[in-house]
Amino acid sequence: MFCTTGLPSDIVVEVGDMSFHLHKFPLLSRSGVMERLIAEASKEGEENCVINLHDSPGGAKTFELVAKFCYGVKLELTSSNVVYLHCAAEHLEMTEDYGEGNLIMQTETFFNQVVLQNWKDSLKALQTCDDSLPYAEELHITKRCIESLATKAYTDPNLLGWPTMEYGPMQSPGGSVLWNGISTGARPKNSSSNWWYEDVSTLSFPLYKRLISIMESRGIREEIIAGSLVFYAKKYLPGLNRRQGASESSSRLLAVALAPPSEEDQKTFLEDIDRLLPMQKGLVPTKFLFGLLRTALILKASPSCLSNLEKRIGMQLDQATLEDLLMPSFSYSMETLYNVDCVQRILDHFLAMDQISGGASGGASGGASPSACSVDDGQLIGSPSLTPITMVAKLIDGYLAEVAPDVNLKLSKFQALAAAVPDYARPLDDGLYRAIDIYLKSHQWLAESDREQLCRLMDCQKLSLEACSHAAQNERLPLRIIVQVLFFEQLQLRTSIAGCFLVSDNLDGSRQLRSGIVGSTEGGWATAVRENQVLKVGMDNMRMRVSELEKECSNMRQEIEKMGRTKASSTWGNVSKKFGFKLKSQMCSAQEGAVSNQKNNFNAKAKDRLGKLKKY
Fold it and tell me: What does DSSP assign to residue 405?
């Protein structure tokens, strides 16, 4: 580059790949460094004075502006070049000793009075600090920019009218919208607490970490800090965008598309994000934590990072979905399709936290016996409200049903995960029964003892009538389990019938009381007819179900008698022990008689009820 002043140049300054052909006097009159270097070159008697400034901050582009300043050209200072110029001026010792209003004073004044007073300019100046290290650090420029941003992020931008990227360029310093450069008085829309997320995501990660640390020390709420970290991580971790829409994913990948980070850089970045995230429950979305864990498993993050993510998820497992839990196995050493071990550890963390906190689920129901969870017509008697642990139990049962078809899933892992959920957490065992049935269907080679051991995980008393009906005809279940299901189904049916009779008697008493007081009316007659029709339908359904149970019990008795014919009389005792009965073979007959008697009583009451109806 040549200076076109009409005079031949007497010095060459080399900055990087650029050579500047200049004059000595303008340079040495403004810079102490140039004065010394020119003096040293003159002592050596070199005809062509050549000075190397390869370490000049900002490179050749910034030195060109410095040279113009030395020649008296007025510079236009902006937030994009003030850091470079200030660092270069300090490096060249352009102080007031070498002329009033020298470059150091001008850049320092502009930086303090303009840049630090504005959010957008402070952000741009901080972005340029990456190219000026370590000069920007020595001059405390980076620190001042970060503190300025932290202070402004803590304050409502609408109060002071700081412009942000959300508002765009058509806004006055006072905050009103501009039209052709004239303030219209219209105010932009109010900003929420996350208005600065997009802006600070343009910073490099080292500067971003420092900014977040300063914000925490200034008292910004942890949920706001966590939201910024989530936004930043989604922008620079490609693996987290797998489940997002195409437009959102492509826009966020645009920043890393030109120079995608290596796997090692991504792993380091993810581990740093994990350390910065707050540990409190509910501050970070559960779906985002599962995305981090899935990415950490792919990148083979450190064990401490994986453990921390599993603990975070365990603290709020009740907020997860089945889709979140279905994490594939990324390790070649694991034979299963899904990472069951990881889900087991997450569940253990949740149960440990639930026990420590003494949650309503554990405290209210933890000491309840299984018999307290009796079932009537598929409804739980005295069941608690839907608590976090009941939600997790339902989630785990659904997960077991999804992983059960995997032929490589070992019985011990399936049992361990199913048994980890406390008994009181399952109001009904229908979900667990479904998972067990799917597992037995996909693992037909299991021995009878293993099948019985697996079926002991569920409580037959906590199966609904629909589940009992299915289990009674399920050939995959062990015979002993089928007998238990039939027995408890009879008990449930008897309870239902007794409840119907109780309701019927109550209706009779209440209707007689009403007739004694107000007399029978035409409207009362219509109501009575409708109620009796409903009751009759219910009794018919009960009669049919009792008949079905009688047939099933009779068939079971015949099978047991056939087994007894082929063995000695002592063998019957062993068969009884195998099926868990302490009664004799007449049990089924006795039960059949009891059910038959109850049926006769049921019919008698029904006839009596219809007889009363005809008297109207």
Answer: T
CA atoms 587, 593, 599, 605: torsion sign: negative
> C-alpha distances in angstroms, 353 versus 303, 310, 357, 457?
21, 13, 6, 24
Question: What H or E segment, with its residue span, contains residue 264?
Answer: helix 263-276
- What gap in Å lies between CA 134 and CA 140, rounded to an integer? 10
Rounded to a whole number, what is the largest CA-CA distance in the chain?
Answer: 138
Torsion sign over Cα 495, 496, 500, 501 = negative
Q: Other C-beta atoms within 10 Å of 120: how many?
A: 17
Short-list 343, 352, 354, CA closest to 417:
343
pLDDT in tens, 332-377: 666 789 999 999 999 999 999 988 876 543 444 344 433 334 444 3
Q: How confident is the model over 292-305, as pLDDT tens digits? A: 999 999 999 999 99
* Sign (positive or negative) of CA dihedral 21, 22, 23, 25: negative
* CATH class of this structure's domain 1-141: alpha beta
For residue 266, what are its two tokens? Answer: 């991504």
Rounded Cα gap, residues 116 and 152, in angstroms: 10
Q: Is the pLDDT of residue 84 over 80?
A: yes
pLDDT digits (tens, 9 = 90+) for 190-231: 457 788 999 999 999 999 999 999 999 988 889 999 999 999
